[in-house]
Amino acid sequence: MGDRKAVRGLRLAATVALSLSLAACAGRIVPPGAAGEAPSRGHGVRPEPVRPRAGGAAVQPGGPSVSRVPNGPARIVGATPLPATPVVPVAGALNAAQSGILAGPPVASLPITEPQAEAARAAFALSCPGLMRRTDASGLTQGADWQPACQAAASVPPGQARDFFARYFEAVQVSDGSSLATGYYEPEIAGSRDRRAGYDVPIYARPRDLIDVDLGAFSTDLKGKKVRGKVQGSNLVPYDDRTAIEQGSLEGRAPILAWGADPVEVFFLQIQGSGRLRQPDGSVMRIGYDSQNGRDYTGIGALMKARGLLGPGQTSMQGIVAWLHEHPEEGRAIMRENKSFVFFRELNGAPQGAMGYAVTGQVSAAADPKFVPLGAPVFLSMDRQDVTGLWVVQDTGGAIKGSNRFDTFWGAGDTARSVAGGMSARGTAFLLLPVGTLARAGLASGSGTPGAPPQR
Description:
456 residues, alpha+beta, six-stranded mixed beta barrel, six-stranded mixed sheet, globular
C-alpha cells in the first residue's frame, strides 16, 4: 500500500489509458489545467441546463464591487440582446478556432458602465499571470498576445477603465455567438466540524486512493484528456459513485472535513463547488472544491422536469430544493442519479476559480476553456438586464461546455442565491481579445466576416 502501491497503480494505468477510446472516457474527462492551477469544479444546477462554485457579494476579493442587482428578491428585467452576425455553426468543432470567429462591434460601442469596467479591469489584472503563462486551449491566442493589455491594466487611471478596454481589446464572435448564461453562488449551510446530533451528513476531503491520470502522457491523440479512478488489483477502475459513497464506501479511505445538517443542502453545496458552513457556535468554516470522483455529472432538474415532477415556476434551484425536501425518499433516489461526487478542502481565504485566483461576485464567470481563454473578458448581451454586461472568465464547470456557454458568479447571501438559482438568460456573447487577433485571422476589426483559425 502507501506510495509504492500508488506508483505501481500509475504504471498499471498506462496500459488502461492507452486502450481507452474517447467515448469510453466520456463523463470522466475534466478540463485540462495548467501547472499550479486549481482544478475544475462541478458546476451544475440552475433552472437547467445547470452547473458548481464561490466568493461573496459583500466580499469582493478580486477587485471593486459592481452592483448589477439590488439587495432583496430577484426581479427579472428584460433586455434586448445585440444581434449576432448570422453564420452556420461548424459541426463537431473542438475549440473556438475550429468553430470560426467573426469581428464583433467596436468595444467602445458596447454599453459598458465605468464601474463595471473598473471591476472587470481589476479581475482581469489579477488573472494576467495565469493568462500569459497557460496554453490557450481555444486556439485563439498565445500568452504573449496578452502582454500589452496586462501591462496597461496595472496602471489605469481612475475613470478610464472603459477607455482601457476600448484601446487594448477587440470584440470577437465565436461561431454563431448564440449564448446561454446561468448562475452560481457561494452557499451557506448548517455544518459542524464534529459529528453531533442533527449533523450527520459527511462532507469529505479528497480520498487517499483517488488517482488522476493524464491520458496525454500516454498518447498524443488523447492530449488534454484526463480520467480519475482507483487501482483495483492490476487495473485502473472507475471511482465509487454517489450511491456507494453515501452508503459508506469511503470509510477509512477519505478524511471527513465536517458534517452537514441537511443532505439536500450538502448535495447543492457540491454542485456550487464551494461554500460556507455555519457552525452551531455561529462561526463560519469556508470550504472549496478539491477534486471529484470522475463520474458523469447529471443535472437532476432536467430529469425531474422530463418526468413531470416540477410544475410551472418550480424549475429554479429553489423549486427543486423544495420538491426534494417534500419527497425525501424519492429525492434521495433522484440525487443518486447524479453519480458525480465532489470532495472539498478547507479555505483560509476567498473562494478561487479554476485559474487559482479569487473570484469576484457579479464580475467572474465560468466557461469552457476550449472556447474561451481563461482570464479573458467577455461581454454578454442577454435578454435579462442583470446579466448583461462585462464579465471576466476565471472559472470552469463540469456542466459548462461548448462555445458561448457561460456561468456567472453572483457572490454570497440571499440575493446571490435568489439570482443565481433562477438565472437562465439567452443572447449574444462577444469575447474581448487582444487587438491583432482578428488581423491574424485575416479579418478587419468590425468587419463581421467569418474568419479562419488564427495562423501560428
